[in-house]
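Need a sequence for this fold. Nothing fancy.
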């Protein structure tokens, strides 16, 4: 019997999805510009959800099979009679990413516009080339970007958020790096090696430990220090310390060897 991952990937039309060497790889695949439609966003959310319970999966790698990363929401799905379903579908992706709590690496080698740029903002690590640019041009169409409006102030600061959203001007990869929106900018011919380097580093560690670490960081953002520390301590004492991998990690240090993770 096939795995849930295989069952999902066999039915996909707008994304490519596979698990290779304990890394879940998802590529946006809706030529030519990866315009986000409700069916495409549903596929993306369901693919991420299919990884629930897979403690062996170390991280999720999201990139594009096209020259563009994504041109954002389709015009059809932006119309007033369909926008509720569209916003619900995009929220579904965000919820799937938050609930699974696996590190999300986003690779950008072209324009990420509108909801495409918001999708990049969901990433924990963003690797880009000089071909990448990030823009929230929604104001030009008489609307505002609902996710960027609340996410960008934490990522790049309120002043730059106002500038980007109120003018619709694009952010270059280098400026994104300077502002902290992007982790690394590498030449296109070095992109694959840079991605594989980060994936290999993360892949050395225990899957559940990575999940808990991300959960603490993401759930603590914006909380008062005392509340955030209480939440972190609770996860550390009541969830982390119950893992077999914690004991294995301590034994490996004492025995001066590499740990052999059970991912549980």
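Here you go.
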């Amino acid at each position: 019997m096939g795995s849930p991952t295989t069952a999902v990937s066999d039915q996909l039309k707008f994304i490519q999805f596979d698990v290779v060497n304990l890394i879940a790889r998802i590529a946006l695949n809706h030529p030519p510009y990866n315009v986000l439609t409700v069916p495409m966003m549903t596929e993306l959310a369901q693919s991420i959800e299919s990884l629930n319970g897979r403690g062996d999966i170390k991280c999720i790698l999201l990139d594009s099979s096209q020259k563009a990363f994504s041109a954002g929401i389709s015009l059809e799905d932006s119309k007033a009679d369909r926008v509720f379903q569209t916003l619900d579908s995009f929220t579904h992706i965000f919820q799937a990413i938050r609930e699974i709590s696996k590190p999300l690496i986003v690779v950008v080698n072209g324009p990420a516009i509108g909801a495409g740029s918001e999708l990049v903002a969901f990433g924990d690590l963003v690797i880009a080339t000089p071909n990448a640019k990030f823009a929230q041009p929604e104001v030009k169409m008489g609307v505002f970007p609902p996710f960027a409006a609340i996410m960008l102030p934490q990522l790049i600061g309120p002043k730059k958020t106002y500038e980007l959203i109120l003018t619709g001007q694009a952010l270059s990869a280098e400026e994104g790096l300077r502002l902290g929106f992007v982790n690394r900018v590498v030449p296109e011919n070095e992109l694959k090696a840079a991605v594989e380097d980060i994936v290999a580093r993360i892949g050395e560690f225990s899957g559940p430990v990575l999940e808990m670490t991300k959960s603490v960081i993401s759930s603590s953002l914006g909380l008062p220090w005392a509340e955030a520390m209480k939440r972190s301590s609770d996860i550390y004492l009541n969830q982390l310390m119950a893992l077999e991998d914690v004991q294995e990690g301590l034994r490996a240090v004492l025995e001066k060897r590499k740990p052999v993770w059970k991912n549980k």
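For context: The longest strand covers residues 15-20.
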